[in-house]
Amino acid sequence: MDKVFFSKDTLIRKEHFWTLILTLDWRRFLVSNKYIDLLKVINWNIVSDLYEKFPLYKHWEIDTLIDLLVKKGILVFKDNYEIFNVSIIENEIISEDAMSFPRTVYWESTQICNFKCIHCYSESNIKWFEWIELNTAKKLVDEMVNNGVEFFNIWWWEPLMYKHIFEVINYCSLKWLKIELTTNWSLLTDLNIKKLKHCWLKFIQVSLDGATKTSFETMRPWSNFELIKENIRKLVENDFVVSINTVLTKINHLEIIDIINLSQDLGASFYKVSPLMETWRGCDNKLDIQLTLKELRLVYENIFKYQEKNQNPKFNIIVNKNVLNPSIKNIDWMPECHYWCPAWRSTCWIDSYGNVYPCSYMNHEDLVCWNISNKPLLEIWKDSKIMNEIRKIDKIDWKCNSCKHLETCRWWCRATAYLRYNKLDASDPLCVAHL
Ligand SMILES: C[S@@+](CC[C@H](N)C(=O)[O-])C[C@H]1O[C@@H](n2cnc3c(N)ncnc32)[C@H](O)[C@@H]1O
Ligand code: SF4
Ligand code: SF4
User: Fold this and answer.
1) In this predicted model, what pLDDT tens digit does every residue of 1-36 receive, in sequence order?
2) Who wins on pLDDT, 111 or 233?
3) In the list 180, 185, 296, 401, which could disulfide-bond 203, CB 3.0-4.6 Å?
C-alpha cells in the first residue's frame, strides 16, 4: 500500500496562533496546533497506521489533514522514498505578540563598505573592526537551524568584504538554511558568481536607488550606475532570484515608476521600497532628503496604481497595501492581527559584534538585548528585557491612540518612532494612513 511522504523541503513551526507550514518554494499556510504530533510522524506511514497511532483523532480528522496537504503538494502518496529536508520545530511559546523564535534573522557580517551612500552609515570602522570569527558565525547558524529560522538575511554594510562570507554561505547551504544576501554588488566578479553558485545561494537583494546615473550616484556616492546595472543583469543570467529595493528620498521619489520599469527590464523577480529611516547619514541628511508625508503617500499611491495596471507574474511588487489602509489583512497566510511590523515579533538583528537588537534600525546602544557570545539567541529572544519591554507596549501616545486601525496595525514601526523621538511608545512619524 502507498505511504505518505513529504514531497518538498519543508519547515513546520508550532506557534502561539497556529502551526506554520513553510515550504522552501515560498508556499506557506497554517494548520491547527492539534496536528503537530501527527505531523511529526506522518512521513513514510500508511494511513491506517496513523489511525492506530493516534486513537484520539477521528479518522476523518486525519484524512482531512492529509487531503489538505496532498492538495497543496506538500504530501504525496508513493511507494518509493525520496529524502526531503523536513524540520518540525516546537519551541516554547513565549508571547501572544511574538513568535517562539525569529523566522528571519538579519545579520551584519562586517562593518566596512566601499560606498558612502547619503542615507546610510556614518563611517566605516575599518581601523578597529575585528572580523567575526568563522566559528562564531557557524555556531549562530547551528542555533538558527535547530530553532527553525526560515531565512538568514546577510545585509548590512558590504558583505562581499567580509573575509569568511563564502564559508558562511556554504555552511548555511550544508545545513539547508535559506539565505538572502544583500550587497551593493559592485564587487561582483565571475569568480564570485561561481563561488555563490557553488554554495547554492539563490536569493539576492540589490539596491537600486535611482533610474538615472545622476540620481543613483547622488544617492550612492562612489558607486557606478552602469556597473551595477550590468551586475544585476549578470546575476539574473546566472539564475539568481533578484529582489530590488529602493530607499525613498527627495532625490528619487519622482522617478519611482522609472525605477520599477528598469528593475523589470533588468530581470528582477521582486521589487520593494523602504522609507528613509532617520539614522546614520539618513539622520544627518534628513532635512534635505526625507520626504514629506504627502510625498511619501503619493509614492505609495503611484506604486499601487502601477501595480494594478501592470500585472506580471514574473515580477512581483511587494509593497504592503497596509501602508495606505492598515485594516487590510496584512499577511494573507497569517491569522487576523498578526501584526505587520515583524521586528521583535518574527525578526531580530545581530550586529557584527554579536549584539542582538529588536530590529536593524533600532541599533542604539540602549536597545542592545545581550550578545550571542554570552547567551544563546533563543534565551535572548525570550528573556531580554528590551524585547519584552517592546512586546508589552500597549499604549502609544498621540495619534495612534484614537486610530480606528489600532488593532490591526498595532502602531506600525517602533524604530521610526524611536529614531525621531527617542521613545519606544511614540506614534510612527511616517504613518501616512490618515492624510
Ligand atoms: C545597509 S544596506 C547593506 C547592503 C548593501 N551594502 C546595499 O547597499 O544594498 C541594506 C539596505 O539598507 C538600505 N538602507 C541604508 N540606510 C538606510 C536608511 N537610513 N533607511 C532605509 N534604508 C536604508 C540600503 O539602501 C540597502 O537597500
Ligand atoms: S547602503 Fe550599502 S553600499 Fe551604501 S553605504 Fe550603506 S552599506 Fe554601503
Ligand atoms: S495612526 Fe498609528 S495605529 Fe493608526 S494606522 Fe497609523 S501607525 Fe497605525
Assistant:
1) 688 989 888 999 999 989 999 987 778 889 999 999
2) 233
3) 180
- What DSSP string describes 62-109? HHHHHHHHHHTTSEEEESS-----EEEE-PPP-BTTB-SS-SEEEE--
433 C-alpha to ligand 3 centroid (Å): 7
Under 8 Å between Cβ of 247 and 274: yes
Question: For residue 408, which ligand has an atom nearest its CA?
Answer: 3
Q: Report how far ligand 2's centroid is from the alpha carbon of 171 (Å).
A: 25
The grid coordinates listed for 210 are 535611482
Tell me the CA–centroid distance for residue 413 and ligand 1, in Å: 17
CA distances from 404 to 323, 401, 417 (A): 14, 9, 19
pLDDT of residue 123: 66
C-alpha cell at 229: 546595472
pLDDT in tens, 138-157: 999 999 999 999 999 998 89
For the chain, the average pLDDT equals 91
89 CA to middle of ligand 1, Å?
A: 32
Which of 112, 161, 184, 280 maximizes ligand 2 atoms within 8 Å of its Cβ, making it the mutation to test the pocket? 184
Q: Is 397 helix (H, G, I), strand (E, B) or coil?
A: coil
Q: Is 278 in the pocket of ligand 1 (CB under 6 A)?
A: no
pLDDT at 405: 87
Measured over the CA atoms of residue 322, residue 95, residue 279 and residue 208, the dihedral's sign is negative
For ligand 1, is residue 279 a contact (CB within 6 Å)? yes
Instruction: Tell how strand 178-182 and strand 356-357 pair up.
Output: unpaired
d(CA 344, CA 413) in angstroms, rounded, equals 11
CA dist 337 and 203 (Å) reads: 28
* CA-to-CA dists, residue 177 to 143, 147, 243, angstroms: 11, 11, 19
CA 216 – ligand 3 centroid, Å: 32
Q: How far is it, in rounded angstroms, from Cα 248 to Cα 154?
A: 22
Is 276 touching ligand 3 by the criterion CB < 6 Å?
A: no
Helices of type H across 204-255: 213-219, 225-237
273 and 319 in contact (C-beta within 8 Å)?
yes
Distance set, CA 201 to CA 69, 105, 192, 412 (Å): 28, 16, 11, 32
